[in-house]
Amino acid sequence: MPPTPKNAGAPGRGANARMTETFMASTVIGAGITIEGEITTDEDVVVAGTVRGKVTAKEAVTIEAGATVEADVSGGSLAIAGSLTGNVTAVERVDLQSGSRVIGNVKAARVTIADGAQFKGNVDMDV
Amino acid sequence: MATDVSIIGQSARVHGRVVGTADVEVLGFVDGGVAVTGSVTVGVHAMVGAGIQGRRVVVRGAVRGDLVGSEAVVVEEGARVVGDVRAPSVAIAPGALVRGFVQAGEPDQAPLARAAEGARAVSTPAVAARVAAKSQAAAPVATTPRAAAAHPPQARATNTAVAAAASPARPQGARPATAVPARHPPAVAATPPASAPRHPPPPIVPALKKSRGQMAKRRER
After folding, report:
1. Which residues of A touch B17 (CB under 8 A)?
2. Would you list which residues of chain A are within 8 Å, Cβ to Cβ, of chain B?
3. ipTM reported for the complex, 2 dp
4. CA–CA separation, B77 vs B70, rounded Å?
5. Domain locations in chain A?
6. What ranges do the domains of chain B cover?
7. Could you report the per-residue pLDDT of A33-44, keeping only the tens digit for each?
């Protein structure tokens, strides 16, 4: 599989913006950090650590490889490379990248599941 | 990699706890506590509604809860802290607002003597300024000017006095003068309430005395 740029589906952003995505991201849950509770933000979220609870963002949500999310996640668009247990809702799209492990229902206008992604749940693409 | 440092963004609100082993920078709002083994920074417009525990805790925003640093706690100019501050090294910059018991240094060393020493240090602006600027680890840093262990409720003094006293030593620069130094003139720093008799002896209630006497009489009968 060709290397997928992080946040390939980030809405309203150019290629240059994507390159600095992690740097620009307003909220970053780094590796080694655990959030037990609810995260609500109007901007992007990048999760490389652990989140238990709920994640609500208006912009892109990125769950990086190695991250563990046990939460319902909603956002503008979602890119998942890590492990996620919970329901996923996106306004625009959801990308389950290679190596990701998702258990839960996915609801978005566009859903991609890459080769090598593990997924168990329902997909709802009618909007 | 940028994800080495965790950031709670400016528009983000976390209702819950933040724990872990890495550094955390809070620029938004955290409702629960923050407990990490790395350093914690609370940004200018950030707000943390519960205690913060970290190796090195730097506060520029608002915190309502205890600050515990295993290495140091730095309360920067413009910060607002309501809660106790504990660390081997504590720095409170001029213009910061702290309301709570401050303990700098090792917690096991005789707290009463240290508090008294701290009170003396605070009363001289020069010392307070030096303490705020350097945040020396071993120095009896700007602790509350009272023996807090004896009467914890009264010990919650406003330590802005420390900052206000120190402010002449460090000019505020181009920053527009906030209300903080004006509201807390340096005179406040010079009046630690240590010597004031806080607890007058309880009044003798005649009714009580009388009733006791009557009870005694009844017993005699």
Report:
1. 35-37
2. 22-23, 25-46, 48-50, 53, 64
3. 0.75
4. 21
5. 36-124
6. 66-220
7. 999 999 999 999
